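Q: I have two molecules that I believe assemble together. Could you output C-alpha cells for the complex as a whole instead of separate predictions?
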Amino acid sequence: MKTKFDKIEYFQSMDKWFRAANYLSVAQIYLRDNPLLKEELTKEHIKLYPIGHWGTIPGQNFIYTHLNRVINKYDLDMFYIEGPGHGGQVMISNSYLDGTYTEIYPEITEDTLGIKKMCKRFSFPGGTASHAAPETPGSIHEGGELGYSLSHATGNILDNPNVIAATVIGDGEAETGPLCSGWFSNSFINPVNDGVVLPILHLNGGKISNPTLLSRKPKEEVEQYFLGLGWKPHFFEWSEDKTNIEIHQEMAQTIDLVIEEILEIKRVAKLNDATKATRPQWPVLIVRTPKGWTCPKEWDGQAIEGSFRAHQVPLPVSAFKVEHIKELEKWLKSYKPEELFDENGKIIDEIRSLAPLGDKRMGSNPITNGGINPKELDLSKWQDFAIKLDYPGQIKGQDMVELGKYMADTILKNPTNFRVFGPDETKSNRLFALFDVTKRQWLENYSEKYDEWVSPVGRIIDSQLSEHQAQGFLEGYVLTGRHGFFASYESFLRVVDSMITQHMKWMKKSLELSWRKDYPSLNLIATSTAFQQDHNGYTHQDPGLLGHLADKRPELIREYLPADSNTLLAVMEKSLKERNVINLIVASKQPREQFFNVDEAKELVEKGYKVIDWASNIKEGEEPEIVFVSSGVEPNLETLAAISIINSHYPDLKIKYVNVVDLLKLRSPHIDSRGLSDEEFDKVFTKDKLIVFAFHGYEGLIRDIFFTRTNRNLIIHGYRENGDITTSFDIRQLSQMDRFHIAKDAIAKLYGEKGKSFTDLMDKKIKEHNEYIHEYGYDMPEVVEWKWKNINE
Amino acid sequence: MKTKFDKIEYFQSMDKWFRAANYLSVAQIYLRDNPLLKEELTKEHIKLYPIGHWGTIPGQNFIYTHLNRVINKYDLDMFYIEGPGHGGQVMISNSYLDGTYTEIYPEITEDTLGIKKMCKRFSFPGGTASHAAPETPGSIHEGGELGYSLSHATGNILDNPNVIAATVIGDGEAETGPLCSGWFSNSFINPVNDGVVLPILHLNGGKISNPTLLSRKPKEEVEQYFLGLGWKPHFFEWSEDKTNIEIHQEMAQTIDLVIEEILEIKRVAKLNDATKATRPQWPVLIVRTPKGWTCPKEWDGQAIEGSFRAHQVPLPVSAFKVEHIKELEKWLKSYKPEELFDENGKIIDEIRSLAPLGDKRMGSNPITNGGINPKELDLSKWQDFAIKLDYPGQIKGQDMVELGKYMADTILKNPTNFRVFGPDETKSNRLFALFDVTKRQWLENYSEKYDEWVSPVGRIIDSQLSEHQAQGFLEGYVLTGRHGFFASYESFLRVVDSMITQHMKWMKKSLELSWRKDYPSLNLIATSTAFQQDHNGYTHQDPGLLGHLADKRPELIREYLPADSNTLLAVMEKSLKERNVINLIVASKQPREQFFNVDEAKELVEKGYKVIDWASNIKEGEEPEIVFVSSGVEPNLETLAAISIINSHYPDLKIKYVNVVDLLKLRSPHIDSRGLSDEEFDKVFTKDKLIVFAFHGYEGLIRDIFFTRTNRNLIIHGYRENGDITTSFDIRQLSQMDRFHIAKDAIAKLYGEKGKSFTDLMDKKIKEHNEYIHEYGYDMPEVVEWKWKNINE
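A: Yes, here they are, computed for all two components at once.
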C-alpha cells in the first residue's frame, strides 16, 4: 500500500530531519556560539574543550528518523532505548526537533538562542551528559556501563501489551556478556500480555579503537546467529553507491516489513489464549552504516568516516586550536543548515510535521517517565501473615517460606503490576507458596512430565540462569512504575553489584529533575546466604554486597537484616511501600528458631533496632556491664545462645542485648541523615562498656560505623572469609561467629585471667563440636536442639 | 581406519569405565561405609546428610570416558574443564579410575578402604567440594560461580599450541552472560601459536528446577546459533532406543570427527605463517543426554531421570530416613560393581587399561597444575624507565604512558609468556608504547585502511568489549603459570569484582594443598579512574573495588595507589614479581605533575608509605601540629597544593606529609599481618594530632582502617558519590577532595573561629573556580598551572 509515508517527497523531508539531527549533534560537540553559522566560524564560537562522541550518532539519527516514520504510518506506541554507550546528542537532537525538548526545558527555546544554549551545555559542567541519561527526554536507559539494553527493554514492556521498545544496540555493546545473554529475553515475552522488544543492532564497525566482532563476521554468520537465538533477522545495509533518498527508501521498506511482522504476530496472538502462546519469531533489525557517517572521510591521510577514528571528536578543533576551523565549518555546512532552520533559528515546518503527535513522540512517551498508568501496590498487612509466638524460640520456621505466603497474596492482589525475578532460584529460595498462585513465564517448549510450574503466563520469570537478566528485568520493570523483587543467592548478587550501582546513579540524577516521576523501590532479597551455604561451600559465600552498597548514596540505600520470619515480613511490607530506594534484604531460608512477636518485629523495623528485654537482665535505665549486638539471622541466634551460656555461668553479669535490623541507621547522621544521633547511640550502646557485635557481613563495615562513635570497646564477629563445605554450625565456627567463640571472647575481654575456667570450657566445646562434625558430618544435637530461656525471668 | 579403539570390545570396556565412574559418583553422595556393596546396605552405611549433585554427572562421565579414548587414539595433550556448577564427583571418580587420585592422595588407596574414605569425605566437613575445585586433580576451573569456562579455557591455551582444552559447558551455564560472550573467544585464538578450545555443550535439559533454554530450542536453531558464532556444530544425541554399546559407538564416531577436524585445522595452520592466519571454523560438540541418566526413572509418580528432579540427590535416603534404602541399593547395583572391582576393591585391569598414560591422564596434565614449563618473567629494572626529576613537580607526565614503555620492554623480553588484556581500552588507557612492539591478536577480518594495530598475532587481546572476557583470559593465563595484566577503566572492574573474588578463593584453597604449584600474581590496573572521568561522567566513576578487595583475605590482596610515574613503575615491577596475590593498581593516565624521584619511589613502594620531607617542615623526630596524608594521584596533588596554600598563610604551622602507596599496610597487624604495628603507626601519624587524609576511594575504608588505631582526630576527603560531566578539577571539588576544601577543613578544625579569614578565603576560591568552570567548561589557570614549592626550604 502506497501511502504518503512512501512517497519521494516524504523521504526528501525525512532526509532534512536526518540532516538537521546530524547538524545539531555536531554543533553540540563543538559550538558555544553562532550555532547556525549565521556568521563565519571563529575561535569565539568554539568550545574550549569539545567533548562528545560522534561515531554512533548519524546511524542512530537515521534510525530515529525512520522510527518516527513508522510511528506515524502505523500509529505505534513506541519508545527508544539507546544502548550504545555514547551519542547523547541523538535523543537530545531528535527530541528538540519534535518539540519535546523545549517543552521539558523551556529555556531551550526554538530559536537560535535556544540552540546556542543547548549546544553550550552539552557535555559541559552542570550540563547534559554525553550519553543518554536521566536528563535526556524519552530516555529510560543510561548509556554508561554497557550491556543492559535488552534486559531493560524486556522489563519495560512486560505487562504493557501495546508498547514497542525500539532498542538500539551498538556493536560494541553486543560483545558484552550481559547483552549476549539478553537475546534470550524472547523466551520470556508473552505475545498476548506483554509488549514488544524490537532490537535494532547497529553495526558501524568500530569501538573506541578496535573493530567490532559482529561487523566483521560474514553476513550469513550474523544471520545464523540471530536465527539460532530465535529472532528473524532483517538487514539494512548502507552503500555508498546509493543516493540519500534511495537509502531512505530502502530503510523504509525494511522497517515496514519488520513492523508489519510485529503487528501480525500481535494480531494472531490476540486471537488466542495467552496461556497457550508460544515464542513467536520476533524480528530483529540489523542496520549497517559507516561509523561517523557524513563526517569528513579522511583526516591527516587516515580514514575517519567508517573508522574507529570517528568514535569521539573527529576533527581536532577547539578554541585553543583553530587552525582547522575551516574544515569544521565545511563539515557543518555540508548539512545545509540554511535549508533546515528559518531566519530565527526555528526548525522549518516541513521537518516538524514529521514528528509524531503528543505522547507518541518518543521523547515524551509516558513509559519513559515512570510508566503507563503506574499504580501503587495493593498490599495486605504483613501482620496477617505473621507467626504467632507464645514465647521467643518457641518454634522453628523458614523465613523465606513465610515470606512466600505473603508474596503469593501480593501477586493475587496485583495481577498485572507485580513480578518476581530470579536465576532459577525461586524454588531453591523456598518461595514455595508462589507456585500455588502462579507459574514461571516461559515461551519455549516444555513438558508436563519433566518440568514443573512453567507456563506461557506467570508472574515469576526465573528460567534463565543469569543474574544480569533477573536484575535487568527488575530494573526495567521498576523504572516503568511497577513493583517486584529479585531473590538471589546472596553471593551471586555480587555478579550484578555494578548494575545495582548504575540503577542507583539513575535514581540519584532523576531525583534532581522536577519533571521526572519517582520510582517504586528496587528490592533485592539476598538469601541462601554465606552462613547457609554449608552444602555449596566457599564459592557460594560472600556477604559483601552490604559493604558495596553502604559506600553509595545513603539516601538511596537501605540494608535490612531481619533475624526471623516476622521481622522479614515487616521489612518486606516497608520495602515494597518505599520509593526511590534500593532495599537489600538479607533473609534466611533454612529452618531457624523464631524469636520476635508481632510487636517486637514492628518496633525492630520501624526503629531499625530494639533492645530485647527478654535477652537483657537490666532494669529500665540501668547501665549494663556488657552489650551484645547482632545483625542477621545466625548472628542473632548465636548471640542469644552465647548470652544464655554466659548467663548460666555468670547470672549476675548485667547484660543488654540489641538486635539491629536496619543496619545503616547505626551510622552517624553526619554520614547518613537517617542515622542515630550520638546521644541515642550512646544511650543504646553505652559510652564505654564492652560491645560484642555479631554481624552477618564483613567486619570492616562495623568498624567503619563505629569509628565516629564514642564507644570503641568493641569485639566484632563477622564473616571471616573461611569457607568450606561443612555443616550449618561449622560454617559459623569457621568465622568464629558461633556461640562458643562469642561467649569466650566476651568473657576473656571482661574478666581476663579470671575468666579462664570459662574460656577453657568454651575451647573444649569448640574442640568437641569440631570433632563431632568431622566424624559425623552433622551438628551435635546440643546446637541443633538448643532452646532459648528468658534470662530476665 | 578401524583401530582397536573402534572395536566392539573396546566399547564394552569403555562401558565398564562409564559404569564404574557412575557407581563411584553415586556412592560418594550416599555412602560412608560398605562402598562396594559387599554386604546388604544398612543404615550404618549411609551418610547422615547425603549431599551432592547427580544430574550433570552421568553425562559428564560419558564425555570423560570418550575423551580418554581420543587421547589414546590420537595421542592428544588434553585437559578437562568442568563448567557445570556441580558434579565434583566426575573429576574425582575418573581420576580415581585412571590412578591419578591415589597418586595425589595416597590415603585414598586402590581398594575398598580407599573407596570408603573417598566416599565419606565427599561433600563432608573438611573434605572435598561438591564441584570441581582446587582439591580436585586435573581441575583448573572452579564450578561455583558460573560462566567463565570458555574464557578460562582460552586463557589456558594461549601460547600453548599443542594443548586442547576439553571444555564442558552445562546448559545452565550456557545461559549466563559471561558464557554467552565467551563463544566469541574463537576470534582471538591463533591456530598456529595457540592451543585449542573444544567446547562440549552438555544439554541435559534441566537446571535447579527449571528447563534450560538451549535444550528446549529446536535442533536447527542450536545449530544456527553455533554457525553464527563461527563454530561448527557436531551433535551427539542420546536415544533410549539404542543399546549402551551403540551409544558408545555413535559418540565415538562423532568425537572422532571432531578431533580429526581439529587436527586438520592445526596441520594446515602450521603450514602457514601465523601472521597470515584467519579464524578457523573450530568444532563444537553438543552432547544431549538425559539429566541424571541411569538413575531411577521415576520416584513417587514423578519423572526423575531426564528431569530437573535429578539435579541434586535424587532418592530421599539418609541414615535418618532409610525406608527406601532398597531402591538405593537397586540403583547402585544396576551398575554391577562386582564386574568392575576385584575382591579387594581394586578397579579391574580391563578398565584401568583404558586410562591414558602418565601425564596424558587429564587428572595430571601439567597445565592444570601451574602450567606447562612456566617461567619466571624476565624483567628489566623499573629504574631504567624512570623519569628524571631535579625537583618535585618539575614536569608533567602521563603515568600510563610511562608504564607502557616498561611493559613494551617486558613484552619484548618475554615473547611467549606475558600478555596484556582489556576491553578495547589499551589505547584509551594510553599504553601507546605497546603498539610499537606488538599488536592486538584478532583473527577476524580487518582492513589496513579503517583499523589500527590488529593482527592475527599479538601480545595484546583487547578487541572484545567485555570485562568478563578480559578477566577470564587473564585468570586462565595466570593459572597456567604465565604472566600478564588487565588494564581497565576503574569503574568497570566492578563488572567483574565477583570473578576476582572467585580467583582469590581458588588461590586460597590451592595454597592449602602441598601438591598445587603456586601462581603468578593477577594484576589489575584500574585507570581512567573516578577522578579522571570528568568527560564521561557519573556512570564511569566508582573507586569501590578498593573496599571490595579489602574485605577479602589480606594475605592474597595488595592495593597500590602510586601517585606518579616512578611510583607506578616501581609498583609494577614488584607486582609482576610477586606470586599468589591479586594486585590492584590504581593508576593515572592523564598528564599530572611528577613528584617522586627514584629513591623516593623505591622507598614508597618497599615500605608502603613515606614521610615526604620536602612537603613537611618538621625536623627529624619533631612532632607536627598537623599530619596530611594522601593515597592516590589526585589526593597527592591536591594535598600538596593544600599544604602549599596553608604554608603560605601559616608559615610557622608544623606540617608533616605522608604519602601512602601500599594502602593495606595501614591496617592493624591483627587484621593484616603486613600491617604497621601500633607503635610505628603512632610514630608516623601521631597519637592525637589532626590528620587530614585525602583518599582516592570511599571514605568508609579509611574509617575502618583507623578504627583500631589510637588517633581518631581524622578528617577524610574521599570520593563522595557526586558525579557529573565536568572538568578535571571540578570532579575533585564535587567530592570536596580539592586543595581548597582540604585546606579549609584543616584550618577550620585546627583554629576554629580564628581561622575564619582563611576559611572565608577558601570559600571564595571555591566559588570563583565554580563560576569559572561553569562559564568556560575549563579549569582556571591557577590550578592547571600550579607549581609546587618546597615548604622545607
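A: One point stands out. Chain B has a mean pLDDT of 96.
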